[in-house]
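Researcher: Please generate the 3D structure of the following complex. Treat every line as part of one assembly.
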Amino acid sequence: MTKRSYNRTTATDGRTWTLGLLGLGLLLALMIGAPTATQAQGSSAAEIMQQAKDRWQGEDFASSVRLTTAEPGGGETVLDVDFKAKLIEESRETGAFRYKVLARVTAPEDVAGWAVLIWEQEFPTPDDIWLYLPALDSTKKISLENFRNPLFGSEFVFEDVIGREPGLDTHELLREDTLTVGGEERPVWVIRSTPNDPDLAGFAYRITYVDQETLLEVRMELYNDADELIKRYQAEEVVELQGIPTWVRATAENLETGRVTTFEFLDPVYNTGVPDEIFDPENLGQP
Amino acid sequence: MYRKYLEAVVERPRWVLILIALVTLGFAAGLPRIQTDTDPENMLRPDAPIRVYNDQVKRWFDLQDVLVLGVVNDQDPNGVLNAQTLGKIYRITQKILKIEGVVRRNVWSFPTTNHILVRGATLVQERLLKTDKPTDADIASLAKALEGNPLFERILISEDRTTAALYIPVEDDVDAKPITDRIQEIVRAEGGPEAYYLGGQRVAEDVFGVLMFQQMLLLSPLVALVILVGLWLMFRKLRFAFVLSPLLIALVAVIWTMGLMIWLGIPVHIMSSMAPVFLMSIGVVDGIHILSEFVDQYPKSRNRRRAILDTLVALKRPLLYTSLTTAVGFASLYFTDIPPVRVFGVFVAFGILAAWFLTITMVPAIVMVLREQDARELALQENRLARALRALGRFSTKHRRAVLVGGLVALLIAGFGLTQIQINDSPVWWFKKGQPIREATALLNEKLGGTSLLYVVAEGEKDTMKEPDVLRYFEKLQRYLEGSPLVGKTTSLADVVKRINEAWNDDDPRYRVIPDSRRAVAQFLLLYLSSGNPSDLQDFVTHGTGYDKANIIVQVKSPGSAAMEQVVQRAQAFLGENPPPRGVEMSFAGPGYFNAKWNEEMFRGMMRAVAGATLIVLLLLALNFRSLRWGIVGLLPLGFTIVFAYGMLALLGVPFTMPIEVISALSLGMAVDFAIHFVQRFRERFAEVGDVEAALTWTMGGPGVAILRNAVILFVGFTVLIFAPLTPYITVGVFIAIIMALSSATTLFFLPALIRQFAPGLVGQPARASQSSRAGAAAPPNAEAEPELEL
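Model: Done. Output below.
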């Protein structure tokens, strides 16, 4: 089992790992000319955000997901989802890795089969997002304006599944800092991003905390134009899985309503050979 | 003891007055810390079941009190659907979203409302209005989105398209007045040709709270001034300060009472804001009796010290017992279930006792501060009034049978009227016609679904609300309710599901139906949650806690409690004949429903309280007179006044509102006072002269004059309230005037006839005595004992 929690990482391990990454980064930089995490220290905020978005997430990925939304007045909704992702072959060469994602509800029973399919596209082409309703056996696409709509009615939005396209915003590096993630202090870049088109945002600006070593976005805060914090995303548990830093539990909290959704990967695994056909919008009716 | 106390006061009048001034200042120092409470919810106890359920429903469905802003453009052929007006609506909404205390997530207006449609193979969810500079295409697509959509028609837009509405929910614990002020500012900045109307029950309540105090500040001095002029006209020759004393006493009593309330940290409610008006009228009464008696006493001794002591000793029992009975009557309101009524009752009782204490202390002190020659200049021109009243008394005793039968008939008619009472009130009606809030509500009710809200709440098991048969049941109930002209609009989860079905199926109206399976409903709902703001669905169903409860929003076109009551009865009739499927239980809640319920509770509570208080007053009267029969006689003017005043109102079809009910307590104060003075003085006089008619004639000419003066002064004083812009004060003014007229009339007209008729039973007086007095009717037999004061 290669799954290893940062909680148990010793100082030596951390250094070894950092050095290893540094080496790998230098190598990669030589190979494909992309800036690496460590190099990015001197690079622009936009580049950091782009690297975070483009990072390697394996050939494919599969896991069951549990989405638990707690209501402020008590009570919660639980949705079980079968989650699969696969690298889009054409992106392998560019180093800006893009994926296809299929999230299909497995419980509760009356919405089982309900699915969301996402094809990540190269900016500025908007991603493709399809919805599938099993009761009507029918599929429809959703438009770019609706990417920030709630995912299965939770506090996460469609866009969060694959990460917001950095090209939609203007980025500014505020500072470097440390942030406790899953009980461990992590070095982070703190970046403020302002949407170029407010109609495609639903927030005035956001502040993202990008882990300097893993390039994972470990915290994100959305603000309205009155500078009030309206939503906060937080990676609660991060592991290294088959060599790939992966968050396995994250929360999204709506500060206006008090609603909180927890997103958990229950049995995540990379590189199991997820078949390509399931990501065909024409095939969403096949189980 | 009483006399010793009076003598002590008379010895050092200046010290007494200074001490009272200091105490009054102490109470007054608290006044600026006043807190107000205009929330009608507080009319019921926090643990009252309706209130608990209402709060629960608000939490389940994330509902708040809503301000409604109507934007009207009746000049443009397209109504509000033109670029300029829509631009204004967009900007106004954006500014409103920034106001502190507004619940942003639930603001409902074109720019904040999502609409689902299908464009080609793409499902699009977009805001109805995305910019303040909409193009013709934007306007056309908005018009299309609104067309026939049950979630928008008559909610966001009127059928004739001249009126668009913005729904602005405000947090529960904030004062909506600054928010409404800010909204007024925002719309003023946008300007015409559009007209703007801001309405809703919450606006009424909170604006009322502010106006209430402005009005009290403005009107109280006006009432005081009118009373002062009245006093001066009646006791013209007396030194100003002395004439002023009844008013001064009333004002000091008001300051003590309100000061105490505020020092104790009790917020002033709509109800207790009326306490000053009550105390003013009750407080003045004692003083006028004293002035009247003093005018009679002074010529005997021509010594102000003796005259005032004699006056106060002669009035000892009536003063004490009128105050005591009235205070006990009001204090008994403590046993109602309505918290503001309890506070009101207890504090008015305190104020009455304070007024009694101030009367027996300040009046002698003020008299002593005057110079002897001031006191000597007495006005003795009341004889005409006294003569007229004595004549009235003689008429009444002579034609006693006719008078009593007449009174009985009037009472029976009024008694029938009591069975016809209609309760109908609304915070909106607390404002006069023509006031902006009232106009706004009228317009919104005419153009849109209605501003008075009823929630029909369905409770079932987990996932019950996704069942097609349950949703179809909602539809059926909605159509049935909409059959009433009072119901302007109903909206429920059924409408949402139908709309999504239609949208997913390429806006084909044939799909505007509830799908046949629970799976389809559940999947549409998940789609809706995935395509918009989850709070949009929260109004209709508890989607976050298992779809076990749903809310049907019913908009009623009249803000009154009677209209709401009718709609509720209609709903109950439907529920009775059509039991809900799957063991679903239906209940009612909502601001309009709550308003109707507390009015009902208030009415019942007040009626019970007044009945209880009357009983206690009867006991006290019987104790005072040491005779149950006399007690009943003393109570009759009160009973007659209440039955007659309320019966006649009901017969005239005047709906009962909160202030009308509250004033029933005032009749307790006034009518009993008059009767006690009358009966007490009559019996004392009778004990002296031993003749019923002679004693009656004397009573009419002496204490009767004081009673009439009281009635006239308060009648005139309170008619001033007619000029208030708030209807509760108008009602209070008119009704106090009516109560004054009735209770003085019953005391002065019916009591003589009654006492004469039942004299044998009451005083054991044989019939012959009356003959002797009738013989001497032209010249009173007690001419020496009671010298005519005519000069």
